[in-house]
Fold this sequence. Notes:
The chain has one domain (8-67). The chain has helices at 16-31, 40-55, 63-67, and strands at 8-10, 35-37.
Amino acid sequence: xxxxDIHFIINTPSGHEAREDEVKIRSGAVQHKISHCTNLxxxxxxxxxxxxxxxxxxxxxPLQEHHGIS
Length: 70
């Protein structure tokens, strides 16, 4: 992490012993500003979002435009 070689962390801890490692991994990720998630559903959503951003330009539309409000 501290070398900048890791850009995204998927950590799925299980059991009491894994809790100590989870805290260290999460703390390191936050300290080094690395995105992380702790379950497979969040990991899958993150990967899909990253792929979408790589393939499509991000656009922002005001909520009012969706409802025809001026």
